[in-house]
Amino acid sequence: MAGRINDDDVKAVRDAVPIDAVVSDYLQLRSAGGGNLKGLCPFHDEKSPSFQVSPGKGLFHCFGCQEGGDTIAFVMKIDHLSFSETVERLAARAGITLRYEEGGYNPASQRGERTRLVEAHKIAAQFYVEQLGGPEAEIGRTFLAERGFDQAAAEHFGVGYSPAGWDHLTRYLRGRGFTDKELLLSGLSQDGRRGPIDRFRGRLMWPIRDISGEVVGFGARKLREDDNGPKYLNTPETPIYKKSQVLYGVDLAKKDIAKSSRAVVVEGYTDVMACHLAGVTTAIATCGTAFGGDHIKILRRLLMDNGSARVIFTFDGDAAGQKAALRAFEDDQKFAAETYIAIAPDNMDPCDLRLAKGDEAVQDLVEPRTPLFEFAIRQIVSRYDLETPAGRAAALDEAAPIVARIKNGASQHEVAVQLAGILGILDTQFVVARVARVARWARDRGGRGPAQGPGARSGAQTPENRSQSGAAGPGAYGPGPAGPAVSGPALNLRSPAHRTERELLKLALQRPELVSPAFDAYGEDEFTAPPYAAVRRAIAEAGGAEQGLASAPEYLARVREAAPNDAVRAMVTELAVEVFHGKSIDEIYAGEQLVQVRLRAVDRRVREVTGTLTRLGTHAAPDHLAAVQNELWVLQQYGQSLRAQGAAAL
Description:
Blueprint: E1 4-5, H1 7-16, H2 19-23, E2 30-33, E3 36-39, E4 51-54, E5 59-62, E6 68-70, H3 71-79, H4 83-94, E7 100-101, H5 113-131, H6 138-146, H7 151-157, E8 160-162, H8 168-175, H9 180-186, E9 189-192, E10 195-198, E11 203-209, E12 215-222, E13 232-234, H10 250-260, E14 262-266, H11 269-277, E15 283-285, H12 293-303, E16 310-314, H13 319-330, E17 338-342, H14 350-357, H15 359-365, E18 370-371, H16 372-381, H17 389-404, H18 409-423, H19 428-448, H20 463-469, H21 496-510, H22 512-515, H23 530-541, H24 552-562, H25 566-577, H26 587-616, H27 622-645
Parallel strand pairs: 14-15, 14-16, 16-17
Antiparallel strand pairs: 1-7, 2-3, 3-4, 4-5, 5-6, 8-11, 9-10, 11-12, 12-13, 17-18
Helix pairs in contact: 1-4, 3-4, 5-9, 11-14, 13-16, 14-15, 16-17, 16-18, 17-18, 17-19, 18-19, 21-23, 21-25, 21-26, 23-24, 23-25, 24-25, 26-27
């Protein structure tokens, strides 16, 4: 087995790679206040951002699906990696050399499967780039030059060439320590009569990178007439390459997509290159498959999907392009962004357009003009004979549901009026009413049945409704390595007591300097909600809130490690990134929370002792009765001091 990664090295990796820098590779982040950042969660569909990142604490938490943790946990979850694979990837990013216990240096052959496959693709990409400069690749260089791409353009996009022989890459990767099993699993090689041979031979090669920039596959263009394969040949489905989940060029385009809230979807690798070289740096393309739901999820996270965002599809004006546009419209409602279509004159794609008319023509092409729904309507209407009443009625039957799907109510009414004009129906209000009725039917059906699509997240949970529903399940905050079960009422944020306890724990985790050392004298029994009592115990076992004065990330890491189970650990993460309810988070605010939690605990004890006195009556032993009466007097005096003096009485 591979050695265990040294604990100090794991800590060094956590400290060296900021969590916001890692998360920003996958989604757009904006300020959430209090030093936190927010974005659309990459782990579930949502319309408004509930995913928060706290750079200062090195933690993330989603208030919708409850995923949370540190940088390592984020990468493990989003890229489906093991712990060691994740640490190795982040260490490589930070330039940290890892040490391995129980066996010293970890040999390459023992590293995780995904890490090995990604490394094989990285080496293959470098190999193909080197081959593009050789004599055999002249045909590839000519292909690029004829389309307006020089050597600098090829280098920018990592374009390469696969030699025409049977096993040039296979032998090269074997020499770099990769096994035949790994080569076949990666899709870089395939079975031949006498063993593995190269999958790609004599073709121009485009590396396909995931959103983090790692090469996970290739697109290969046929160059020779004697090549009997398809025009484009892509990597098959592998453990690291799923064509429905990658977008070519997204690694280069993601920052500008997030910055401009605009994305341009084109159809091919050369179209992406042409757009970027023409200044349209938000262009991306699918890889041998139609634009679909998984692609939308990627774009929505980058766009911080909202009504001001724009997605522009460019399709050829031929029948195939029109069909692709209609397929794209089927998924239109999964965007909050406005969607448009751009078709170049003479049905040219962006690459041909740049060659024929220059960069400005490409820039002009992708300026939003025709909404995708309008294009879809005109395509539907064009199939009917509008000269006859029957033709107009049939066209209305098919087009009305399209208009009814338009998100904006005012736009829906306006387009319904336009539809009446397109169809030649003089009674405009009839068409408007028909569209409104179809829209109402669709809403009613949605109301009776299960929620459909990301826009109907009936199960999405805020901290309030999740806490009240007991989402973690019974016993989640109960017995564990840290101690016995916590008893008490169910967590309910409508309760003033629970709200105050939550704020105090947030202060202890996020701003320990405001509540220390007083907080560390608070007992678990002062927190009436079982989850909060469990978090209080975890803080105590991590050494108390005073530990957070030295290093917040280390302190939070210790508290999370002290949590007895995943439910408590998730609650710690949630409280560590949640914003405060107060306007000014200072010593006065902290003192108010400390006093309220302590005062409620005192009042509860006063009620208990008063009940004891009532039960004792006049028959109790004098010494016992005097002790109970004395305790009651002390509690009442302490309560009065807290009410009169506030935090000074703690």
